[in-house]
Amino acid sequence: MRYGIAMVVRMRSTKSHRNNRRSHFALTSPRLSTCSNCGKVRPSHTMCPSCGVYRGKTVVDLQKKIDRKLRKQKEREKTVAGK
Predict the structure, then answer these.
(1) C-alpha–C-alpha distance, residues 59 and 65, integer Å
(2) pLDDT tens, residue by residue, 30-80
(3) Residue 52 φ then ψ, to 5°
(4) 3-state SS string for the chain
(5) CB-based contacts of 60, cutoff 8 Å, min separation 6
(6) Which of 12, 54, 78, 81 could pair with 47 as two cysteines, CB 3.0-4.6 Å apart?
(7) Domain residue spans in the chain?
């Protein structure tokens, strides 16, 4: 079985060449906009996480979601207390 020969870098990249290549790696801050319904800050092109509205329409009824979560939590507490 023959072992391959490792490749050797012939031309070393200088610091300036390396840094010029990395100049495009900068992070950008997320685009934020305000919700037209509640006025809180949210990411662009997404549903508002605080009120559930996107482009003037209610996408997710958050109050119903919260009520369901509380009801499940109460049921769990009852089953744990009953044991």
Answers:
(1) 12
(2) 999 999 989 999 999 999 998 899 998 988 888 898 899 999 999 998 888
(3) 80, 20
(4) CCCCCCCCCCCCCCHHHHHHHHCCCCCCCCCEEECCCCCCEEECCCCCCCCCEECCEECCCHHHHHHHHHHHHHHHHHHHHHC
(5) 47, 52
(6) 54
(7) 31-82
- Say if residues 48 and 40 touch (Cβ distance below 8 Å): yes
What burial class does residue 39 get, using C-beta atoms within 10 Å of its C-beta: 0-12 exposed, 13-18 middle, 19+ buried?
A: exposed
Locate 36 and state its tokens. 């037209």
The one-letter amino acid code at 6 reads A
